[in-house]
Structures are given as structure tokens and as C-alpha cells.
């Protein structure tokens, strides 16, 4: 019998045997395992029954918080849809996982996002990742950070002016805004201008009461991915979240269309410039670098890779900072005494610097630095980072088999009482002293660390300086504040605040 027929004839039996072995193993697993502790793992579904109520609320972060509190710095968890992972909240081990070549980027999460972010730097692995990172890194060098500083000033003032006019036009001399909506618009405009020299005009759209289609589409992407976490793979088609579902294809098409427009606009400008990029050397922005690499024939980014990077940067550049800024405002509204102390510092240092804030003197706002870091400690918007073990490793006295996934649970690491006094309290003053090495990693660590972290640090500080200099923020009572795990962590229904002008 030809080989192909033999395979076809035995395939059903082989599949049935494999399924039976998987089920049998899952029954035996709890009895055989002498690995790290963790919640009871039911056959096939693992800890899914215990996690279901959290998943239903998209609050899986609370489930993992609880697991890590109960079982300590290493815990074994298996959730049917997400497989087995060893969850870590030990600083030294976290550092090793993120920085040592024994651990490589896991493809698990990428399986949930690949149709949207396949060619984005944060999804790439191996040699392609290395080529992309090397090409794009210079677009985050000192010259660009200075440019990012100027852009931060522009977008912060644009938002502050818009709110100021809205307050002047109001009868009560105060307004209620959903800060998240405005921060999404601001950070979208920021990444457009700072990395792509492109104008989205998202702040102006929102002021006019119009939706920005690009932002709406990215929001929808996060909702599709959020649902993929909750729904078993084989049900994605029924839930309209499968990569081949018409709604998902439509959404992808719209995003690709927007990205194409940005790329086409630049290609047109290049054509008008005799085929050359508009800037050269260290001045080239991210898009220049992506396009020059494809047109000069030395190192080649395919059209898909260019589109993938643009898509990824629009997302990574706005979703992360807008959530963190919203969480910072949430904390400041909840702690008026901290907001007042911060406003006092901003007034004092701003006047000392005569309003001339630069990349270099920005850290003279010391209390602000503590507020931003403390926000990122308590509410890291990337809750966890997962890596795969290339060979068996010893970790905290346990032997972890090759191929396993190890997840640094950043939230639990950032609240581990071994490293933080009063870990659940918001104390900006704690940042007068450096943290224990490895215990604070909101931007990751090692070779995959956040390429945009310096830009984000500048942007977030500028926004808070300009807003707190001009406004006081107070609680808006008629809202239910809920935290949610999407692709990033944030506030489910945004965060409304009352905005009032400050007297100087
Ligand atoms: C508060 C703001 C931000 C936070 C908390 C944050 C967090 C992170 C984290 C934790 C990683 C590591 C991922 C991993 O190890 O797999 C990462 C990677 C990345 N971030 Fe950010 N990020 C922020 C802002 C930004 C901005 C503004 C940009 C773009 C300008 C950006 C672009 C990226 C990219 C492209 C990667 C992938 C890097 C690589 O794999 O080489 N991020 N970010």
C-alpha cells in the first residue's frame, strides 16, 4: 500500500489514541506531579472551573493575583484554552526569565493576535525579530526623544486648551469628560506625529464630537482579542471572532486600509522628493526606516512587514500610554492629597524652569516621577510576560521541563510583600529609594524590552505636567469603575472625571 494510503487508513485510529492518551494523562497529572503548587487541575480543563467567573468578567488578572497570593512565588496553572504555565512573582527568577537566552518568546498569546499583529515587532521571534529591532531602534535615539518631547508639549497643550475652552463655554465652569477617550485621542496623535510624522487629528475629532474611525477600529481589535481569551478556539467561528469570520476580515480590511493610506502618503512625498526619503541619517523617523529598507535593496522589509510594523506601532504606541494615563488620573482623583502635593510640585518646578521643560530636566519633577512609577507598579498595563523554556531548568527548587511556559506575573511581582512595604498602598514617596533589582518591570526587561519606553515616559510626564498645572480633577460619582484585562489592563468603561480650572 502506498505510504499516503497507509497514513490515511490509520489516521482516525492514531487521532483517537492521541485523544485518549491526552485525557488519560490529564486524569493522572494531579497524582504524578510533584512540581510547584497551584490550584487543583481538573482533567482536560485544568483550573478553568475556578477561573470561569473571572474570565466571564474579563478579570483574569484577579484570578492570577489570588493564585500567586495563595501559592507563593511559583505556581503551576493550566487553563484549557491557554495551556499550562508556571507563574512567577520572584524578582531574581523574573529577571532570569526575561534576560537569559534559556527562555524565548512564547507563541501562545501570538496565536490569539496573529491575524492583526503578525509582523509587528512585539509579535516577532528569532532572526526576523532581530532584523526589525536593529533597523527600528535608531528611530528611538536621542534626537527622536527630543522630537518626542516637543510633540508631547504640543499634544498636551492642545488637550489642555480644548478642555479650557469647554470649561469657559459651560455654565457651571466645570466639565465632565471620559478621560480615557481623550487620552486615547492624545496618544494616537502623539504616536502619529512622533514616530510617523503623520497627523491623525484625533483630539480635534473628539472635541467636535466625531468618532475617529482609526481609534474605533483599534478598540474593536482589543475587544476581539479579549473575547478570544475567554472563548475556546473551536467556538471562535460561532462567536464571530475567528480570523476567517466576516466581521473580523472586515475589521482587518479597514485597519489595513488606514495603514496603507499612511504608507501611500509617505511614498508620494518620497516620489516628489526624487525617490529619496524626506529625512536622512539619525533624523529618519520610523516610517522612513521601514520604507528605505525596502527600497534600497540592502535589508528588505516586505510590504506585509511594513504594514505589520505600522499597525503594531499605532497600537502599542497608544493603547499602553492611554491606559496608564487614565490609571494615573484615577489614582489622583481617589487621593486628592496626592493630587494637591503633585500640583504644588509642578507649579514650583515649572516656574523654576520658566516653563522650559526638556528631556534632560524633566526628572526634576521628582514627586511626579514617583506618581508615574507608583501607577505603573500597582497597575502595570502589561500584566504578565510569557517565555518558553528551551531546555529543562531548575527554578526555586523545582525542575521545569523543556518546552514549558514560564510567565512573569508582573502584577504579583509588583505587589510582592518581599520587596514592597504596604504593597497595596499608593505611596509615591517610596521611589526616593531604588527598588530591589528585578522587582519593577513595567516595560519588561532583556532584549525584548519596550522599544518605546523612553518616549512613553516623556509623553506621560508632559501630559500630567500640563494638565495638573491648569486643572483640578474631582471624582464623578455616577459611574461604575471596573478593571478589565484586554490585550492590556485598564478601565472597562473608561473613567469620567470632573475637570475644573485651577487658580494661579
Ligand atoms: C506606558 C507605556 C508602555 C508600557 C507599559 C509598555 C510595556 C511594554 C512591555 C512590557 C513590553 C515587553 C514585551 C515582551 O517582553 O514581550 C513592550 C514591548 C514593546 N513596546 Fe511597549 N510599552 C509602552 C509604550 C510603548 C510605546 C509608546 C511604544 C511605541 C512607540 C511601544 C512599543 C513597543 C514595542 C514595539 C515592543 C516590542 C519590543 C520587541 O519585542 O522588541 N511601547 N512594551
TrEMBL record:
Report keywords, A-Z: Heme, Iron, Metal-binding, Monooxygenase, Oxidoreductase
- According to its UniProt record, what is one Pfam family this protein matches? p450
The answer to whether keyword Heme applies is yes
Q: Work out whether the entry's keyword set contains Oxidoreductase.
A: yes
Q: Which InterPro entries match?
A: Cyt_P450, Cyt_P450_CS, Cyt_P450_E_grp-I, Cyt_P450_sf
Which SUPFAM superfamilies does the entry mention?
A: Cytochrome P450 (SSF48264)
- Family, similarity comment: Belongs to the cytochrome P450 family.
**The protein, known as:** Cytochrome P450
Q: Which organism is it from?
A: Polyrhizophydium stewartii
Amino acid at each position: 500500500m502506498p505510504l499516503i494510503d497507509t497514513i490515511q487508513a490509520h489516521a482516525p485510529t492514531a487521532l483517537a489514541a492521541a485523544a485518549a492518551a491526552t485525557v488519560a494523562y490529564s486524569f493522572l497529572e494531579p497524582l504524578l506531579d510533584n512540581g510547584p503548587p497551584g490550584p487543583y487541575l481538573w482533567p482536560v480543563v485544568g483550573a478553568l472551573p475556578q477561573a470561569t467567573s473571572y474570565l466571564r468578567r474579563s478579570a483574569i488578572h484577579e484570578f492570577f493575583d489570588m493564585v500567586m497570593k495563595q501559592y507563593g512565588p511559583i505556581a503551576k496553572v493550566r487553563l484549557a484554552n491557554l495551556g499550562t504555565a508556571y507563574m512567577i512573582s520572584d524578582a531574581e527568577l523574573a529577571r532570569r526569565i526575561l534576560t537569559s537566552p534559556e527562555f524565548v518568546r512564547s507563541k501562545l498569546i501570538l496565536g490569539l493576535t496573529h491575524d492583526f499583529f503578525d509582523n509587528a515587532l512585539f509579535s516577532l521571534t528569532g532572526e526576523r525579530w532581530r532584523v526589525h529591532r536593529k533597523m527600528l531602534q535608531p528611530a528611538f535615539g536621542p534626537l527622536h526623544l527630543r522630537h518626542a518631547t516637543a510633540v508631547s508639549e504640543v499634544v498636551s497643550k492642545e488637550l489642555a486648551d480644548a478642555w479650557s475652552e469647554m470649561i469657559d463655554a459651560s455654565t457651571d465652569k466645570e466639565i465632565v469628560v471620559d478621560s480615557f477617550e481623550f487620552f486615547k485621542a492624545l496618544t494616537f496623535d502623539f504616536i502619529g506625529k512622533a514616530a510617523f510624522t503623520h497627523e491623525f487629528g484625533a483630539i480635534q475629532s473628539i472635541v467636535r464630537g466625531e468618532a475617529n474611525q482609526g481609534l474605533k477600529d483599534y478598540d474593536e481589535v482589543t475587544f476581539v482579542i479579549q473575547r478570544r481569551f475567554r472563548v475556546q478556539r473551536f467556538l471562535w467561528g460561532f462567536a464571530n471572532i475567528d480570523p476567517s469570520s466576516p466581521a473580523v476580515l472586515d475589521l482587518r480590511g479597514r485597519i489595513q486600509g488606514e495603514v496603507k493610506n499612511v504608507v501611500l502618503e509617505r511614498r508620494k512625498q518620497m516620489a516628489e522628493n526624487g525617490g529619496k526619503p524626506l529625512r536622512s541619517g539619525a533624523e529618519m523617523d520610523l516610517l522612513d526606516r521601514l520604507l528605505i529598507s525596502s527600497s534600497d535593496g540592502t535589508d528588505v522589509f516586505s510590504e506585509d512587514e511594513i504594514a505589520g510594523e505600522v499597525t503594531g506601532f499605532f497600537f502599542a504606541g497608544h493603547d499602553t500610554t492611554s491606559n496608564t494615563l487614565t490609571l494615573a488620573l484615577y489614582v489622583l482623583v481617589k487621593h486628592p492629597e496626592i493630587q494637591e502635593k503633585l500640583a504644588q510640585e509642578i507649579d514650583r518646578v515649572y516656574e523654576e524652569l520658566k516653563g522650559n521643560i526638556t528631556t534632560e530636566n524633566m526628572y526634576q519633577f521628582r514627586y511626579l516621577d514617583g506618581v508615574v512609577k507608583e501607577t505603573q507598579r500597582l497597575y502595570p498595563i502589561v500584566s504578565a510576560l510569557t517565555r518558553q523554556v528551551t531546555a529543562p531548568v531548575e527554578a526555586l527548587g523545582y525542575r521545569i521541563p523543556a518546552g514549558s511556559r514560564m510567565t512573569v506575573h508582573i502584577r504579583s511581582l509588583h505587589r510582592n510583600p518581599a520587596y514592597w512595604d504596604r504593597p497595596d498602598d499608593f505611596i509615591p514617596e517610596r521611589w526616593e529609594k531604588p527598588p530591589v533589582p528585578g522587582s519593577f518591570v513595567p516595560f519588561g526587561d532583556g532584549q525584548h524590552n519596550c522599544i518605546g519606553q523612553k518616549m512613553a515616559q516623556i509623553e506621560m510626564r508632559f501630559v500630567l505636567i500640563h494638565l495638573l498645572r491648569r486643572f483640578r480633577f474631582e471624582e464623578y460619582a455616577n459611574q461604575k469603575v471596573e478593571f478589565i484585562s484586554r490585550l492590556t489592563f485598564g478601565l472597562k468603561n473608561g473613567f469620567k472625571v470632573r475637570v475644573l480650572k485651577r487658580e494661579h
